């Protein structure tokens, strides 16, 4: 029986849930793929634990047995995992701790599943080239659109197609806030507070609302789906924070749905990306996306146009996206 050793870096709200969910699914993964998916290491930013015979849920939730300093690369060196799941924080200046973790993985022949975005958004071309050279797979549903399977649709379902345009509402916080402001007449502050109360928005939602999150996701999607690694700093973006009363009235009077969308368009020189605010008429498919629901439109030569509306915006949805990536990875091994 094959043992697949997994290390998880980053045990905040998402990481801790991923660890417990992975342990709960262990028997199911054995039945489906015939391998023992063993969580052998977890860590936060300052401490961690390694156990060759596999951790249990109590080892994750009760950190009394964790060792100070056993975190990040030292944890990976001690555990020598086959798969690294990174759920740590993103840093769009340094690449965050996920940069060192992903570098370790692809340089040591380990596969990676990324929830944090910054390492790929800033250094994706180099990291994926190393991964290919060393036979590693990198999955990043949690870093691209969570429950909305954008990369899966583009990379697998439309494999071989010439995708000419991708337009997507990728951030549940922005979608919810705009919906509240247009449909309910809430102020920006009221809409943000409601999103936070429902667990949709972060305590500081500026990264989602000002277009940076959508831009980072666009870079990751273009890189993973098309091999087109764009410069994050070069992606022009609009912001929910700059929406005017006039814009809100215009969308409301026209009966339109407002959305902050990321757009990828293929031109003669490759793909261009931008983040923009748009209003969609009542008959547009995106109007079915209410609240924090996400949406995707794809145009592909020879295939036609596709629309996908759905995908929750919640910690549970991100965890589900990681587990999906685990299954895709195991199916390919």
Architecture overview:
This protein has 333 residues and is α/β, with parallel strands linked by helices. The protein contains 14 helices and 12 strands. A hairpin with a 3-residue loop joins strand 2 and strand 3 (47-50). The longest helix has 18 residues, at 315-332. It is globular, with a radius of gyration of 20 Å. This is Homoserine dehydrogenase. Keywords: Amino-acid biosynthesis, Methionine biosynthesis, NADP, Oxidoreductase, Threonine biosynthesis. Residues 10-139 form the Aspartate/homoserine dehydrogenase NAD-binding domain. Its EC number is 1.1.1.3.
Structure in a nutshell:
With 333 residues, the chain is α/β, with parallel strands linked by helices. Helix content is 42%, strand content 23%. The strands form two sheets. Strands 4-3-2-1-5-6-7 form a seven-stranded mixed beta sheet, with helices on both faces. A five-stranded antiparallel beta sheet has the order 10-9-8-11-12.
Domain module count: 2
Shape: globular
CATH topology of the largest domain: Dihydrodipicolinate Reductase, domain 2
CATH architecture tag of the largest domain: 2-Layer Sandwich
Gyration radius over CA: 20 Å
Widest sheet: strand order? 4-3-2-1-5-6-7
Tell how many strands the DSSP assignment holds.
12
- Mean pLDDT rating: 94
CATH superfamily of the largest domain: Dihydrodipicolinate Reductase, domain 2
Main sheet overview: 7 strands, mixed
- Quaternary: single chain
